[in-house]
Amino acid sequence: MWFSANTIRYLHSQTPFLTEHAVSALHATGLKLGALPSSLPASNALISTYSQADILPSALHVFSLLSHPSTASYTTILSALSCHGRPYEAISLFATSASAVAPDAELLSCLVSCCRHASTLLPARAAHAYRIKNVAALAFYASAGPALVALYASCGKVGAARRVFGYMDGLDMVS
Q1: What count of other Cβ atoms lies within 10 Å of the Cβ of residue 174?
Q2: At what angle do helices 71-83 and 87-97 cross, to 10 degrees?
Q3: So where are the chain's domains?
Q4: Are the beta carbons of 44 and 76 closer than 8 angstroms?
Q5: Phi–psi pair at 141, nearest 5 degrees
Q6: What pLDDT was estimated at residue 1?
Q7: Which of 26, 77, 78, 133 could form a disulfide with 90 if both were Cys (CB 3.0 to 4.6 A apart)?
Q8: 101, 70 in Cβ contact below 8 A?
Q9: Residue ranges, the chain, pLDDT below 50
Q10: How far is it, in rounded angstroms, from Cα 79 to Cα 83?
């Protein structure tokens, strides 16, 4: 089958050149061939492509068609919502469906980034606490560390920001 997640990933790399019509035609082809929504990688790539092409309603629609979204699906849609200036909606989506998946470091990092954009401390602290109990520290702090430091510092939690910074890999020159 020529239509796969790799097909969408390739087209996703061409997103600046894709029109709404082209992405919709790609979506229609995937539906006709039965690759969507049954293939999570293809669906996630399509969600990301719609988002990159500034067609967020269609990205949300594709996500809503997933019967059992994966952790990567949630990461993709939360990132799309945050990139389109809707971090509160992303946090709300995560809160209402948190029991559907076991968050990994990438999903928690995306959630912390959404919290930073929304200047909302409580969900970020909950994600940080979840990490302490369930996710490898190195993976979490490598991806979520800078956003968590920035959020804690902007909320006046300098001690917490300093502790998180201390856990981060010393090779991160930006932080």
Answers
A1: 4
A2: 160
A3: 98-175
A4: yes
A5: -70, -25
A6: 47
A7: 78
A8: yes
A9: 1
A10: 6
